[in-house]
Amino acid sequence: MYPREWLILFSHEPSRAMRGRAFDFPDTLLPMKRLVVINKKIGETPLEALSAWKALHPLYAGVPASYAGRLDPMASGKLLVLLGDECKKKEQYAGLDKEYVVRVLLDVCTDTGDVLGLPTYAGKNTTPSKSLVRQVLESEVGSHPRAYPAYSSKTVAGVPLFLHTLRGTPVELPTHTETIHSIHLEGMEQVYTNTLSTSIERSLLRVPRDSSPSKELGSDFRQDQIREAWRELFTSLPDRPFTVLTIRVRCGTGTYMRTLAERIGSALETRALALSIHRTHIGKYRNLGLLSFFFPSF
């Protein structure tokens, strides 16, 4: 059965020009969505991604919207957005599992765990074997207590941790439980300094500008300071190869890929950061022996 609204819309005889033709229905001819999965680009904030989607779907311009899980500015991929009255059911979506594809750069770290941070060179040339990397990854599977990143939106005394960090206010990082269902090595490659420098510079160029007074502390994500720090680092380095790992992670909600990358580096006796983070699935992960899948998958 079609919804009553659809029956009313299609109760009239179609014109001869429309008979037998496939066509895209505009939003005004479809039932209102309760949720939507949008694709956030690198450098976009979740709000910018949502605003871009609403610009393409003006019927939803005034409809309340709420994120069911966020993504860091330098992360890309699927972002689940609740619309209208579905926003009141946000807690029902809070426990959804996620899948990410992450590229981990060895021998360089930042204070944020991704490229949007002040870099430090480890002074090493780490080229681990695949068997060693897989052993390190396997040790991450399961549930473990983890500290929140210093640069995160988790609040302490009503203030986000990243503001405490920028202000230099000493606070004890709160902990929570992170769960990794599975983690696999999908590839290892060598990326030379010049190529790496160009890639990071292009990523940083996508970060939005915000000069509003409320953003004065750490304005623009410190990007001018960060860009200059990366330039100084790469200028001081020879055109050497860096090892980059590509991993696929299926995890519970609230698992930070930035700190995962840092732990992988530590386990390999070096420093590391998340060179890129891309969310590929949102749903409930199930592992049934030889079979594993997301259900439902957004």
Brief description of this entry?
By secondary structure, the chain is α+β, with helices and mostly antiparallel strands. The protein is built from 7 helices and 13 strands.
What does this structure look like?
The protein is an alpha+beta fold. It folds into 2 domains: 31-94, no CATH class; 97-148 and 175-207 and 224-297, Alpha-Beta Plaits. The chain is built from 7 helices and 13 strands. The protein has helices spanning 4-9, 46-56, 130-138, 161-167, 193-204, 223-236, 257-267, and strands at 35-40, 65-67, 75-83, 97-106, 108-110, 119-121, 142-147, 155-156, 159-160, 175-192, 241-251, 272-288, 291-297. The strands form 3 sheets. Strands 1, 2, 3, 4, 7, 10, 11, 12 and 13 form a 9-stranded mixed sheet that branches. A two-stranded antiparallel ribbon has the order 5-6. Strand 12 and strand 13 form a beta hairpin. Helix 5 (193-204) runs antiparallel to helix 6. The longest helix is centred in the C-terminal third of the chain and has 14 residues, at 223-236. It is globular and about 60 Å long.
